[in-house]
Amino acid sequence: MKYKRILLKISGEALSGALEYGIEGSTLEYIAEEIKKIHALNIDLAVVVGGGNIFRGVSAATFGMDRASADYMGMLATVINSLALQDALEKKEINTRVLSAIEMREIAEPYIRRRALRHFEKGRVVIFAAGTGNPYFTTDTAAALRAVEIGANIILKATKVDGVYDKDPKKFSDAVKFAGLTYTQALMKNLKVMDMTAFSLCKENNLPIIVFNMLEKDNILKVVKGENVGTLIKEENNESVN
């Protein structure tokens, strides 16, 4: 396999499937099945799930709620999603541990880097919940931070589109997809790959990012095998499109 240790970032909205909010059972089942295929290859797999399908801190702050309080509520939403994903994976006989940045020992282990690494040694999927444990940081930033901490080879950012475009492909039929980009190109073109804090962390640590469509069957498997799926962002990229 091309990658030995990966971090998969899944948006909370992905879990809602066709629903306006919440968790759609069939979508959760599908995601668990896709993760199972990766786990079967003996690849170390960590997952960060957003909470936008339940509560989004930034949105709540726009109608008057204190931003810090709203962000903490958003962190709790990621814990709910993480526990749902853990349940779905363990029903498929995949040993899974949820490590939370906010201590809640009755339902999750506290995040300790060495503990996460030990879980990898035992062949477990590790789900990082509650973001970074601090307000004003997104789950994208949490994903980048945890990926660097555990020595992941790459971040797989699962979305509902098949890569990074120069403009919204849902609104513009002439949108152009990038096969590959460098960090500098993504910044110069003002492409919203991740929030700026997360993206800068990846750039500083030369951590590649692949943005791909998770709703297409076997796409995660193809990425792990090194096939050309989605858009690859890294320091030097011979496949970049201008």
CATH-defined topology: Carbamate kinase
Counted up, domains total 1
**Apparent shape:** globular
**Segments where pLDDT lies below 50 for 5+ residues?**
none
SSE arrangement:
Layout: E1 5-10, H1 12-16, H2 25-39, E2 44-49, H3 57-62, H4 67-90, E3 96-100, E4 109-110, H5 113-121, E5 125-129, H6 139-150, E6 154-159, E7 164-165, E8 177-178, E9 180-182, H7 183-188, H8 196-204, E10 209-213, H9 219-224, E11 231-234
Parallel strand pairs: 1-2, 1-6, 2-5, 3-4, 3-5, 6-10, 9-11
Antiparallel strand pairs: 7-8, 10-11
Helix pairs in contact: 2-4, 6-8
Structure notes:
With 242 residues, the protein is of the alpha/beta class. It has one domain: Carbamate kinase, CATH 3.40.1160.10. The chain is built from nine helices and eleven strands. Strands 4-3-5-2-1-6-10-11-9 form a nine-stranded mixed sheet, sandwiched between helices. A two-stranded antiparallel ribbon has the order 7-8. Helix 2 packs across helix 4. The longest helix is centred in the N-terminal third of the chain and has 24 residues. It is globular and about 50 Å long. The two termini are 29 Å apart. The model has no long low-confidence stretch (mean pLDDT 92).
